[in-house]
Design brief:
The chain is an all-beta fold. It is about 0% helix and about 15% strand. It has one domain.
Length: about 50
């Protein structure tokens, strides 16, 4: 999942698709023109320090 940090409410918004419009689900701000952060390298709940 890709994510963007809203500059209005500072919460993270997640999406599988980085194309098209991107609206913050928390405050409704338009995040379309903000840079997308890369997907995490691990699944949610997985310990990233485990080997």
């Amino acid at each position: 999942m890709h994510r963007k940090i809203c500059t209005n409410c500072e919460r993270a918004s997640h999406s599988a698709d980085i194309e098209g419009s991107w609206i913050c689900p928390y405050c409704g701000a338009d995040l379309t023109n903000l840079p997308s952060l890369p997907p995490e390298d691990f699944e949610p709940g997985q310990d990233p320090t485990a080997t």
